Amino acid sequence: MLQKLESTNKKLIRLLQLVYLNFLWGLLVVLGLGLFTFGPASYAMVAVIRKWLRSSEDFPLTRTYFDYFKENYKETLLISWLYLAVAFVLYVDLAYIQNWYLRVVILVISFFYLLSALYIFPIMAHYQWQGMFYKIKMAFLFGFSQLHYSLVLLLIIIGSYAAIIRLVPGMLTFMGSSFFFFAITWTAVQLFDRLKKKEVTIDKNTFSEGEQL
């Protein structure tokens, strides 16, 4: 009984922390007019959520969030500008191009762009790779290679937000962003761990074959 109460208490605390994270993210985005803080604030939220998922230790939430915010500020800012510019170009193309075949091509490109955008911050938080464009390329390759999981993730997010808007729209004020980033980060962490296990298994099998030879 006590264990169940403790487990429920931890979940409620985590829920409140997600609300607080949503507040921090929104505050920074507003203060930076979106353009100068959206990328760093989003990266910081993903990094904090990843830390929650991979560690049971408590840590100061506010200080950790701002540490991550400052950690890769320049790179995350440039990446957010790049993705914003691409999104603008794709939107203008879809709005003004009337040729059906070209519109299909742009929609396909937009879909792959979305896959890359979903995973760019989890990849930045998880891997210590160098080079902005390399990380963008790997985000695209990861989204494409895990396409079935990415589609399920998109369906869950869209379905969840549709239900929230219909049933409890006020919830978006408190967890609109943190829920979105939590879903993406949780999925990415599971996939990263799964890929790591596969790599370890392959290495072990290769080593065993080498011994037999």
UniProtKB/TrEMBL annotation:
Residue ranges the record marks as coiled coil: none
Keyword list, A-Z: Membrane, Transmembrane, Transmembrane helix
Annotated transmembrane regions: 20-46, 78-98, 104-127, 139-164, 170-189
Organism of derivation: Candidatus Enterococcus mangumiae
Source lineage: Bacteria, Bacillati, Bacillota, Bacilli, Lactobacillales
Pfam families: DUF624
UniProt protein name: DUF624 domain-containing protein
